[in-house]
Write a structure and sequence with these properties.
The complex is a heterodimer of chains A (180) and B (329).
Chain A lengths: L1 H16 L33 E4 L4 E3 H5 L4 E7 L3 H13 L7 E7 L5 H10 L8 E4 L4 H5 L6 E6 L4 E6 L4 H8 L3
Parallel strand pairs in A: 3-4, 4-5
Antiparallel strand pairs in A: 1-2, 1-5, 3-6, 6-7
Chain B lengths: L2 H19 L28 E16 L5 E2 L6 E14 L4 E16 L2 E8 L2 E10 L16 E10 L22 E12 L2 E12 L2 E6 L2 E9 L3 E14 L4 E14 L3 E2 L2 E2 L5 E13 L5 E9 L7 E2 L1 E15 L1
Antiparallel strand pairs in B: 1-2, 1-3, 1-19, 3-4, 4-5, 4-6, 6-7, 7-8, 8-9, 9-12, 10-11, 11-14, 12-13, 13-16, 14-15, 16-17, 16-18, 17-19
């Protein structure tokens, strides 16, 4: 029957034209070891330097951020609902427990410092423990191979301890607790 | 009833069923940050053997609700949208059993003041099976108890993760066109036609299948297991069919209300406390179908109220859809 044949063909088309690895996902650990001492976004590498402005116009660099801190957290935001949920969760559940850590929200979608300030204000993050950074040239976005929700932890020695999606925040807490 | 009248009657009933029940906007999880895909109901009317459907969605983003239900605007000077071309085909195996498939192709367009991105790819596809244990006679007047019987369709659907997901080899969140998970839904569609009115209720309960994840936005990470939360949705729709002239052409207008709730996701079996979402939306549609009902054309609008309390942890959007459908006899 012609219709039935077309139907089966369509089903097969769906099954075999899928792009991506979602039809049969893998749980294999495919992380490649990194060379300690090299500069890069990987866990174990030295964090790439950066120099950007916060929303108050102050220049923030990697070394200035790390000074007098046990480490820093960089959270990459585009002010979306997922980002909002992550940042709110961090405010309530993580930041109060780690006063020696610097928490930075990296805005990589605004074209100006004032735009980043407006976004932070409309999302309610002005006046919170987050320092909002305006990554206008995507220096940090590219240097840390980041995207929405990427959470980077850098120890006081400048070594990256975590670089992955925030998820439920439990790994962030674990990593921060393990900082010397 | 004479055969001629019976035929006309059947055509009218079929047109009503097509126009009113089949074009309900179903809640979708399609966001620039959240993946795409556009499952929608696709049922073959009684008189036909199969249906081919093509539609185009334009989803415009306008802020979001935070986890407390407060509506937050998008960043200044941002323009976020997603477009979907949906190809659907449904086939009737017999009087009560039919199946359908919908394959969307997705275009993401995201413009911020400091960044813009245009990506595209296949969205998540869906397969559905419908069984109709009860049929509606769709009378003009209720004369007997039998005339009160609604039509009931039940059946499962399977969302297939054919779209590019955050767990694929992508560069960033803007590349995402699908969620990356299989989902099995149980669907119940009840509708009653008392011409020219039609009232329908669609209820769905969906369960995502857990999958291993070893990559996020292209970066390999320590493997873990993840499953989005169970999904509950319901749509109530009221339609009115207006007969144009004496030729049998119909114009059917529908209003609908949709509630969608997805519970918190689980990672390695543990709840992610802030990952679920809720969304309430209102919809309107107009369907034109010709005398023979083989061709029909539609336009619809799904609207979310951009005020506090109409959603949680989810983007607020307007979805405009135009579509055309052909029924094979």
């Amino acid at each position: 029957m012609l219709f039935a044949r077309k139907w089966y063909l369509l089903v097969l088309l769906v099954l075999f034209t899928a792009c991506g690895n979602n039809l049969s996902p893998s749980g294999d650990d495919k992380r490649e070891p990194v060379d300690p001492g090299t500069i890069g976004p990987g866990v174990g590498q030295n964090a790439p330097d950066f120099s950007v402005s916060d929303i108050d116009g102050n220049t923030v660099t990697l070394s200035s951020a790390l000074s007098s801190k046990k480490g820093i957290v960089l959270y990459f935001t585009m002010w979306c609902p997922v980002c909002d949920a992550h940042m709110s969760h961090m405010l309530d559940n993580t930041i109060p427990s780690f006063p020696d850590i610097g928490f930075y929200a990296v805005d990589y979608v605004s074209s100006s410092v004032s735009g980043a300030r407006s976004s932070a204000a409309s999302s309610g993050f002005i006046g919170t423990p987050f320092t909002i950074l305006a990554d206008l040239d995507h220096e940090m976005l590219q240097g840390y191979d980041a995207t929405m929700g990427t959470t980077v932890v850098i120890g006081s020695d400048g070594v990256i301890r975590m670089n992955e999606d925030y998820k439920d925040g439990s790994k962030l807490k674990d990593v921060l607790s393990g900082l010397p | 009833m004479k055969i001629g009248n019976k035929l006309v009657y059947s055509i009218i009933v079929a047109a009503l069923i097509m126009g009113a029940a089949l074009y309900q906007a179903r809640p979708v999880y399609a966001g620039s940050c959240c993946g795409g895909g556009s499952p929608a109901n696709l049922l073959v009317p009684k008189y036909a053997r199969a249906v081919f459907d093509i539609s185009f969605d334009m989803e415009l983003y306008d802020g979001f609700w935070d986890q407390d239900g407060k509506h937050i605007p998008d960043p200044p000077d941002s323009d976020l949208s997603q477009y979907r071309l949906n190809l659907g085909f449904a086939y009737r195996f017999n009087r009560r059993l039919q199946a359908s498939i919908i394959i969307p192709y997705v275009w993401n367009s995201n413009k911020y003041s400091g960044l813009s991105s245009h990506t595209s790819g296949l969205g998540d596809s869906s397969l559905s099976l419908w069984y109709e244990p009860l049929e509606d006679a769709s009378p003009w007047r209720i004369k007997t108890l039998k005339d009160m019987v609604p039509s009931v369709n039940i059946g499962p659907s399977l969302l297939i993760p054919t779209g590019i997901s955050p767990y694929d080899d992508v560069e960033n969140s803007f590349d995402v066109c699908g969620r990356g998970f299989y989902r099995i839904d149980g669907n119940l569609l009840i509708e009653k036609t008392l011409q020219p009115w039609n009232l329908s209720v669609l209820l769905s309960y969906g369960k995502y299948l857990e999958r291993p994840v070893n990559r996020e936005y292209g970066k390999y990470v320590e493997p873990y297991d993840k499953a989005p939360g169970d999904r509950i949705s319901g749509t109530v729709s009221l339609s009115y069919a207006y007969y144009i002239g004496s030729g049998g052409d119909t114009l059917t207008g529908s209003l609908s209300y949709t509630y969608l709730h997805e519970k918190d996701a689980k990672i390695n079996g543990t709840d992610m406390a802030f990952s679920g979402f809720k969304k309430k939306s209102l919809g309107g549609s107009i369907v034109y179908s010709g005398t023979d009902s083989d061709w029909s054309f539609r336009g619809s609008w799904s609207h979310t109220i951009k005020r506090d309390g109409w959603g949680e942890n989810f983007p607020s959007t307007d979805i405009f859809t135009v579509g055309v459908r052909y029924a094979f006899r």
